TrEMBL record:
<feature type="domain" description="SLH">
    <location>
        <begin position="37"/>
        <end position="95"/>
    </location>
</feature>
<dbReference type="InterPro" id="IPR051465">
    <property type="entry name" value="Cell_Envelope_Struct_Comp"/>
</dbReference>
<protein>
    <submittedName>
        <fullName>S-layer homology domain-containing protein</fullName>
    </submittedName>
</protein>
<dbReference type="Pfam" id="PF00395">
    <property type="entry name" value="SLH"/>
</dbReference>
<keyword id="KW-0732">Signal</keyword>
<dbReference type="InterPro" id="IPR001119">
    <property type="entry name" value="SLH_dom"/>
</dbReference>
Length: 95
């Protein structure tokens, strides 16, 4: 897990949905890294720093976007969303 800047960790900040997905990706919670260079979500630019992580976790069915086709990168992840993500990780590991 990296900090939010070169010499800063920001332990009291909220975690965004993009940061959460990058952490899961860095932890290796996937079978194969996505090679998709185009975003599946209308609000995720193709050059976003977390695109590979987002696309990989989406293809692994760990995370989903919203019904309106967005991922909402910079929104804080809610407790309910994190609970679903952890359940998806658990189920994937026990298949």
């Amino acid at each position: 897990m990296n900090g939010t800047d070169l010499n800063q960790f920001s332990p009291n900040s909220f975690m965004t949905r993009a940061q959460m997905v990058q952490i899961l990706y860095n932890a290796g919670l996937y079978s194969e890294s996505s090679r998709n260079t185009k975003s599946s979500f209308q609000d995720v630019p193709n050059n976003h720093w977390a695109l590979t992580a987002i696309e990989t976790m989406r293809s692994e069915r760990i995370v989903n976007g919203f019904q309106d086709g967005t991922f909402r990168l910079n929104e804080p992840i809610t407790r309910a969303q994190m609970a679903v993500v952890l359940q998806n990780v658990y189920q994937k590991q026990n298949r």
